[in-house]
Structures are given as C-alpha cells and as structure tokens.
Write a structure and sequence with these properties.
about 300 residues; alpha/beta; Rossmann fold; Glucose Oxidase, domain 1; 2 domains; seven-stranded mixed sheet; globular
C-alpha cells in the first residue's frame, strides 16, 4: 500500500527548493505570487539562489541539506522543485525519506525530478508529476497550473487526449509511474530501478535524436521493463530530431519495442516538456482507458 500525503488546504505551507539546475529570483517570485494566490504560505530553501556552482543551484551539499531539512520539517506540507535540467541524480541516493513515512508531504516536479519520483516510489510514497516554478510565468501555463492546483488540493482531475491511429485499445486499473524517459532508463541498476510489472508506465522526452530515443527504449526492453506492463502512456515528445538515416516515426519506434504485447498504449497525452503539462500522482492507482474516442487517465482518490 502506497503512502499518500495529505492533500493541501488554504493556509498550508509549501517550500521551493532546487535539487538540480540554477534558478533566478524573478522566476521564483512570480511562482510565489501564484502559490500565494492559491492560499498557500511559501518558503524558499536557504540556498535556492546559491552561486556555489556554475550550472547547479549550489553545491551538492547545499542542495542536499536544503531538501533534507525541508523533508524533516513538520511545518512544511509540500516541496515543489524549482526546475529540472540536471543534478538531482548526484544527490538522490543521499536523501533519507524516513521522515516522510511518519509525516508524509507532497514532492512536486518533472523532468530531472523523475529520479526523485522513482526513489519515492521505491520507498512506497506517492508524489506529484507536474509543472515547476521556473515555468509558472509562461503565457500558456494556465492549464498546467490549474491541474497542479487541483491535484495538490485533492480535487478530481482527469488527463485525456484525442484519438491516435497508433493507439492500442484497452482498459486497466493499475499504479502509474514514470516520467522522463532518459531518467527512467538512467535508474536501471540503481536502488531506484522501478518494478514495472503490473504498472502503467508514462514516458516523455525532449531534444533527443530518434536513434537515441530508440536506444533508450531498447534499454528498457532489454531490462525486461516493457514485458509485463499494465499499460504504456506516451506524453509529449518535444523537439525530437529527425534524421534521414533513422526515418521511423516516434510511434513506430515505441510500438516496435512493445510488439506482441496486448496492453493498452496511448500516444499524445499532455504530459511533459511543453504546455499543457497536466499533473498526476506518481505511484497512485488510476484507471486508464484507451479506445476509438481517445485516451483517459482518471485518478482514483479512494484507492
């Protein structure tokens, strides 16, 4: 049974911390305004704007201390990761999540934060895959923000997409996990390697060549991670670079890796590195329905 943190209510306190790449104060102040408008109190991690590294938001030790202290702080009800990029895997195995078992709180983010979601899933704790403060100020961020607020506050929310001729139909109820494909593949052979058997796996990616996308999926296939899925959900495949020497469509690359399996496969879900990037609870049980009318993921609060 997964541990589900309490949903937020007005007056709750959330913290913004950076586990990876640098952020700038103007971006975080805009995010603070939005979160405050939701009725939340907002705190910045002490080293959020540290200049201790050329690329990362502080040294590994600073980022580790910030996040760990927020995990241990009983007055914090959610930690929203400031942005993705790279850097979380450098410190993820040093985190101690024992405090979350006694006092669960939501951890929010996507992209590089996929490594945190997988680590939390291995510990039996739900988290939220959703947009991050560095993106809150984008002109088209409205639906992404609305979905994040709804999921944080425990309101009903559905992720759905129009039909795709390459979809494989089916209906399943199962735990949903995953996120950025590169980070899922990166977890192989680590303490965060997910057990995908009986799970709905979500994958999304950005700025990769098609042959690299094929290589990442081949790695998951070789590791047996595509064999006994309950379902496969493909989100945004953003700025995937074409190549004359690798002309398969993204859908063909994916379907070639799951050939012979009859579980539902859905393409084009609004999840990933572009708006709308709709939020969902990582590790929770959902109902996935794929048919001629499209794809629908329904979160089940009671499960």
């Amino acid at each position: 049974m997964m541990i589900r943190p309490p949903f937020l209510a007005p007056g709750a306190t959330v913290a913004i911390a950076a586990t990876g790449r640098k952020v700038v104060p103007t971006q975080m102040e805009e995010a603070k305004k939005i979160l405050t408008a939701w009725g939340l109190n907002v705190r910045f991690a002490p080293h959020l704007f540290s200049d201790g590294h050329t690329y990362l938001a502080g040294t590994d030790q600073e980022r580790l201390e910030d996040f760990q202290n927020l995990v241990n702080d009983k007055t914090i009800h959610a930690i929203i990761c400031a942005r993705g990029g790279y850097g979380t895997t450098r410190i993820v195995d040093a985190f101690n999540f024992d405090a979350l078992v006694q006092n669960p709180k939501w951890i929010v983010g996507f992209s590089d934060v996929t490594s945190l979601h997988l680590k939390l899933f291995a510990q039996g704790i739900e988290s939220i895959h959703g947009t991050m403060p560095v993106l809150f100020g984008q002109d088209d961020a409205g639906p992404s923000l609305e979905s994040l607020r709804n999921v944080l506050f425990g309101e009903s929310w559905i992720v759905e997409a129009l039909p795709d001729t390459d979809n494989q139909s089916g209906v399943v109820t199962a735990p949903i996990i995953g996120g950025n494909l590169s980070l899922v593949a990166d977890a192989m052979g680590t303490p965060s390697e997910p057990d995908t058997s009986g799970k709905i796996l979500v994958i999304e990616e950005i700025c990769e060549h098609k042959y690299k996308l094929d290589r990442l999926l081949t790695q998951l296939k070789r590791a047996g991670k595509l064999e006994r899925l309950a379902g496969l959900v493909v989100g945004h495949m953003t700025d995937i670079e074409d190549s004359e020497s690798f002309s398969e469509r993204v859908q063909e690359i994916v379907l070639n890796k799951v050939k012979g399996h009859d579980y539902p496969v859905a393409f084009g879900l609004p999840i990933g590195h572009e708006n709308p990037n709709l939020a969902w609870r990582h590790g929770s049980t959902v109902r996935l329905k794929v048919d001629a009318r499209g794809c629908r993921i329904e979160m089940l609060n009671a499960v």
